[in-house]
Write a structure and sequence with these properties.
This protein has 114 residues and is mostly beta strands. Helices cover 0% and strands 50% of the residues.
Length: 114
Amino acid sequence: QVQLVESGGGLVQPGGSLRLSCIASGYIFSHYPMRWYRQPPGKERELVATISATGGTTDYADSVKGRFTISRDNGKNTLYLQMNSLKPEDAAVYYCNQPRQNFWGLGTQVTVSS
């Protein structure tokens, strides 16, 4: 049974940092690219970042370039999203996704507020 379980969300002040994690199970994690999406309140889900299966290639939405870093540890079946210099507009539910087979986690809430 495939599972993607996100963690690491929470409340942070503007300018702060959070690191999200997504632990995958039930498939060969190292064989597939991974993505982070987010869905702000009342808005559509949007792609935040993508990483290749080996971790050698990454891509980011313009809105997070230079502030967010996607990474992975294939030995731990874990995907990460380091988020720095957080802004109120980064507040959303963040989801990890395996795009080839369309697997999704349940999400973790990130709130950015003073």
